[in-house]
Structure formats: C-alpha cells, structure tokens
Amino acid sequence: MKLTGNTAIVTGATKGIGRAMADGLAKEGANIVVVSRTASDCEAVAAEIQSTYGVETLALPTDVTDLAKIEEMVQQTLHRFSRIDILINNAGAALTKHALDLTEEDWDWVIDIDLKSVFFCSQAVAKAMIPGGGGKIVNIASALAFVGEKRALPYCVSKGGVLQMTRVLALEWARYNIRVNALCPGYVETDMTRDEITDEATRKVILSRFAIRRYGEASEMAGAAVFLSSDDSSYMTGQSIVIDGGWTSA
Q1: How many CA atoms lie within 13 A of 44 on its CB side?
Q2: What 3-state class would DSSP assign to 41?
Q3: Is 227 part of any domain?
Q4: Contact predicate 62/72, CB 8 Å
C-alpha cells in the first residue's frame, strides 16, 4: 500500500490506460479523483473503484482544455481531500489524416487536448502542491514522441512537446519537491487504437515493429504509473519511461 493517504487526480480516467492507472493507484491505497468529460462515466468509474479498493473517490466531469474548468477541478479536489499529491495527465486525443489535409480545427483539437491541457493542469495542480510540500506529476506521452508516424502529425508533435515540457517543469519545480516525469506507452489495446486492432492488414504491419509481437495491455502501464507516483521514484525527475514492446529500440 505505497500510496495510502495520497490523493491522485487522473484525467481521462474512465477508459483505457487512464482507467488502468486509476485502478493501479487505488490498489496501492490512493484516493482517486476521476476526471473525464462525461459525468455518467466519471460517476460509474468512481463508484466501481471505491467499491473494489475501499478508497475514497470523487467524480469530476471536466473539460481539461478549459482553464476555468481546470481551476474548478483543483478547488473541488482540495475541498474534498484538502491536498493533491499526484496528478496523472492522461487525457488525450488523436486523429489519422495526411498532413496536406489537416485543417486548423484538426490541429487545435489535438494540440489543445494533448499538450495545452497537460501544461495548464500541471500548473494549477502545482500551485496546490507547493503549500502541501510537493507531489508527483506523471505526464502520459507516447512512443511517438521518439519516432514519427505518417498521418499522425499533430499527435506526434504534441507528445514530443510533452517530453520537453516534462523536462522543463522538472527543472523549475524540483525546488518545491515536485517530481515531474513522463510515461510513454507504445500501441496499447484501447478505444483509441480500435481501428488499427480490428483491421488485420494494419494490425500485421504494426505488430511487425515490435520485438514483443503483440499489442500492450492497459494494465501493463499501471505498474510504471505507481512507481512514478510513489517514493520509489523520489530521486527521479524530468525522465521518461518507455513501455512499447521494444518498438523504439529499433
């Protein structure tokens, strides 16, 4: 129970990797603030986590691209739990489109969710962490921060930006005992990758890239999230952990 008594905000917590990480933190004793856009999803997941792990939960439907909503998320968490110890910046979006066909709306949609929201959630939570003596911020980037992928330009750019943001925030906030690190998954079976998984030709091409010839599972990201959220990583900041089945090793 490495995280007993800690309060963790997990954005994008109702599905896929976010849900798996929320479960992993709760299993270690952390109280979980379930953040996603849809109120009914947040409430259902919060209830399931509380029932399964016996921790306290709070469902907070939040648009993390809206700065006022981010501030409201932080204030409601403080009102309920008095402190914030962990932030998992997991909310994300992607689209598949050739670069020549991208519109301004396409670009803004991905960058706002995958990059802008990570900074402003981190900033708002850091301001709450400082009076409490510090905390842990885990930014969910991607293996595509290290390698390119056709028809995924805004996503690749945003995830590369998340890595640089992680490094800079780690340098600035170390004095406040705030550790900032990144977790970089490869292809994981989630709703976001459903099309690639179900299309046999695409699946075969993608799997050929991996030393471990399968997609990752969301639950396989939870252990790293717990590590980066706990005192086991107390001397680690500004770093990234890549869990991609050996993809970027090539």
Answers
A1: 9
A2: helix
A3: yes
A4: yes
Question: pLDDT tens digits, residue range 75-94?
Answer: 999 999 999 999 999 999 99
Residue 1 domain flag: no
Q: Decide if 58 is inside a domain.
A: yes
The residue with tokens 């991905």 is 110
pLDDT at 189: 84
Torsion, Cα 123 114 16 98, to 10 degrees, reads 180
Task: Give the amino acid at 186.
Answer: G
State the CATH number of the domain containing residue 125: 3.40.50.720
pLDDT-derived band of residue 196, with 50, 70 and 90 as boundaries?
Answer: low
The total domain count for the chain is: 1
- Expressed as residue numbers, the domain containing 159 is 7-189+217-244
Selecting among 53, 155, 187, 215, the annotated active-site residue is: 155
Whether 215 sits among the annotated catalytic residues: the reply is no
pTM: 0.96
